[in-house]
Amino acid sequence: MLPDSANSQPAPQVPRQFRVVTSFLGGIVTLSLLVMLGRVAQLQLAPSPALQDQMEPRVSVRPDPPLRGDIMDRNCRVLAASRFAYRVVIDPVNFPEKDQDKALVGLAHAVGMPTEAVATRILGAIETNRQRALLAGDSQAPQPGASPSPRPPAPSGSPTIRDVALRDADRAAEPPAEPPDVAESGPAKTRGPIRYLPLTGVLTDSQAQAVRDLKLKGVIIEKRPVREYPGGDEVASLIGKVGSERKFTIGLESLLNSVLEGTSGSLRYVRDASGRPLWMNPGSVQPAIPGQDVRLSIDLEIQRIGYEELQAQVESEDAAGGRLVIADPNTGEILAMVDIVRDLPELEPYPWIPKSAKTGKNEKPEPDHPELLLGHHRYITIKEDPARLLHPALARNRCIEDVYEPGSTFKPFVWSTITELGLAKVDEIFDTEGGRWTFPVGPHSMRHIEDVTKRATMTWHDVLVNSSNIGMIKGASRLSFEQLHDTVVRFGFGKPTGLGVPGHPFPGEAAGLVTPLSKWSKYTQTSVPYGHEIAVTPVQMVRAFSAFARSGELAGTLPRLRFTALSPGESEGVIYRVLPKEIAILTRDPMCGVVENMEKGIITRHEPIPEGGWRYRMFGKSGTAEIPLGAPPKDMRAPDRHKGFYDDQFNVSFIAAAPAENPRLVVLVVIDDPGPRPGPRNLRYGSAAAGPCVRRIMERSLTYLGVPPSPKPEPEAATTPKQ
To answer: Residue 582 — pLDDT band, cuts 50, 70, 90?
Structure first.
């Protein structure tokens, strides 16, 4: 048997030349792979600017807008809501070039727009892109200075849609900029092409489907949120409006934006050069988070009642406008707020005089402006508000932002303070001078005051019932300047109420006008007691008057006004106490007499009383005040011998609470500049021009709320004659 070594064969030897070649090739391949890997890393981590322009469009981000939260009234009736709808967006780069006229006509027909408008917008963008390509030195575009590519000629006859649209676009477009001098300014940085061109507003579902059926390249159906307002014009000035591109404008839409808006989502994906999706990385989908719904304190039905009644009253009084605020005094919730302005063609701008016409020291005084001497003129007294003409939601909210003199509606605050301090007893007799009184207010100055109800004497109780200016001035003379000034400030006048939502006051709220104590004079001391030389907002009046209308231990305290509904278990909120409970309730009694006088003297004669009488007993106060001229325009002044007020033009108001035994509502109506009418002048005063409106609103609103009627007074027992 042969040994194993004899059977084994030596391993074949690989030629040395082959080993060298394969090693060399392997090294080259390895080096090439390393170079490629390095290049890929360099392209990913530090691409050149030119490459960045090509890389960015390859990653698409599709936004996912959130659905905005609903705004509802206190009973969950929807006032503002959002839904998703569609609009057409054009990518001019990808818009088809073949059969372009047919595509434009079909698209215009599908979206319900004029063909010329669609063609001008799209072809104008395409032409802009061509001009930008020229400036960028695109090799595929005609070079600067060269003749542009000729457009396809139109067939004989009428020009094509493309020709007309391009001609219009050329006329509207700016001339292309000249190429910069490279030697002096370096390379020019040009803008990229237009790739996103919104074409339409919101489409109907049938229009969106018609656009899809066209299957046009470069035509995108974009989903977008749409805000709708089923609450209508009655609440428009309160709710406000969300503008284009989700930019809020004014009102509660602005105030509540952080809660309503939600959080946008997104979808990121990589696409190819044709725009087709290739892949998505993990975490590329971020879902949108919808906004929260908000329940307001507004009651849509009470808002509608207030709007109807105020509109009717403003028209019947031929007034320039009207304002209304309804609140729950116990919670501070605003249940309704209405602001109406009428367009009266007979109103004239006030005839201010240039300052250059001012008379000199030695010259004869200039007479009043001639226009003021020729008959009666009715001037514009409400500030201009151009945005109101565009949409009711854009109007300035005059219940919050504009001030007025309260007139006699201010008297209960002064009356209650004097009574609280013990400076006047309810049954004390005051000399009211027969309704006419002249008294000194300075070393060389006299002041004349008249009452509407002229009596020789009145009790302190009747001073408020009959709204005696003379009695109020005499009562207030027992207060020091500091005490009267403190009364005004203590009730919250002279500073904003902070009305809004918790932590967010309504923007633009006026503070009102209160004479500072450093400038307080005897004239001020005799003006403020009957509501002159002070300016307030309607919401300030409602808050202050609520001190008389709050129930139980809350009587005499100011509520914290709010626009959002009170949540279960949430505290009503109290700012501070302004009166003792007993004094606040005591002040209701003379104001019940004010309402009784109004109902007997005005409503009985001019308005029908419901069968069975009024359901609810209420207390309140009327007010009438002249309208101050305000500051003149720049470089202008008022006419000579003007009194600082519009002649025979005033604002009237009535504020009340009901039911008197347990108030549930406070209602304020302000009638701006009631028009002239035949008959006694007092028919334009607060009791006649605003009081009936408050009475109707109170009856309808309390009945709607299901509030039990006030107890009927027991009939007086008949006396039996002695035998």
So the answer is: very high
Taking residues 583-594, what's their average pLDDT? 96
Centre a 10 Å sphere on the Cβ of residue 378 and count the other Cβ atoms it contains. Answer: 18
Which residue, chain included where needed, has tokens 């575009």? Answer: 141
- Among all chains, which residue has been given the structure tokens 């005696």? 468
Q: Specify the pairing of strand 71-72 against strand 294-295.
A: parallel
Q: How far is CA 509 from the centre of its chain?
A: 11
- Tokens representing 320 are 């320039």
**pLDDT of residue 643 exceeding 90:** no
For residue 671 the two structure tokens come to 């009638």
How is residue 215 written in tokens?
Answer: 């299957």
Q: How far apart (Å, rounded) are the C-alpha atoms in residues 327 and 299?
A: 10
Other CB atoms within 10 A of residue 420 CB: 18
| Cα(642)–Cα(31) distance, integer angstroms | 98
> Rounded distance, CA 82 to CA 605, Å?
49
**DSSP result, 603-620:** IHHHSPPPTT--SS--EE
pTM > 0.85: yes or no: no
Residue whose pair of structure tokens reads 């003792």 in the numeric block: 580
CA angle 244, 249, 250 (to 5 degrees): 150
pLDDT category, 605, cuts 50, 70, 90? low
How many Å apart are CA 100 and CA 54, to the nearest integer? 28
Give the 3-state secondary structure of residue 366.
Answer: coil
Omega within 30 of 0 (cis) for the link into 674: no
Q: Which of 131-140, 164-173, 218-227 has the highest mean pLDDT?
A: 218-227
Q: Is the pLDDT of residue 360 over 80?
A: no
Amino acid at 358: K
Question: What pLDDT sits at residue 148?
Answer: 39
pLDDT over 90 at 17, yes or no: no
Give the full edge-to-edge strand order of the sheet including 645-658: 334-341, 321-327, 665-672, 645-658, 619-628
Taking each helix axis from N to C end, the angle separating 115-136 and 161-172, rounded to the nearest 10 degrees, works out to 60
| pLDDT of 156 higher than 70 | no
Give the phi and the psi of residue 502 in degrees, each rounded to 5: -50, 120
Most confident of 6-20, 82-96, 460-474: 460-474
78-90 and 71-72 beta bridge pairing: antiparallel
Average pLDDT over residues 291-300: 94
Distance CA 363, CA 327 (A): 57
For residue 126, CA distances in Å to 90, 95, 129, 173 come to 10, 9, 5, 12
Q: What integer best gives the mean pLDDT of the chain?
A: 84
Span 672-685, average pLDDT: 79
Structure-block tokens of residue 229? 């307002």
The enclosing H or E element of 650 equals strand 645-658
Distance CA 226, CA 366 (A): 60
Helix (H, G, I), strand (E, B) or coil at 100: helix
Torsion on CA atoms 708, 586, 496, 304, rounded to nearest 10 = 20
Domains of the chain: 54-77+231-296 (3.90.1310.10), 85-143+158-174+191-221 (no CATH), 300-423+479-705 (3.40.710.10)
| Cβ partners under 8 Å of residue 499, min gap 6 | 334, 400, 505, 506, 509, 539, 561, 562, 563
State the amino acid at position 610 in one-letter form: P
Cα-trace Rg, the chain: 39
Residue 208, classed as helix, strand or coil, is: helix
Work out the pLDDT band at 61, boundaries 50, 70, 90: confident
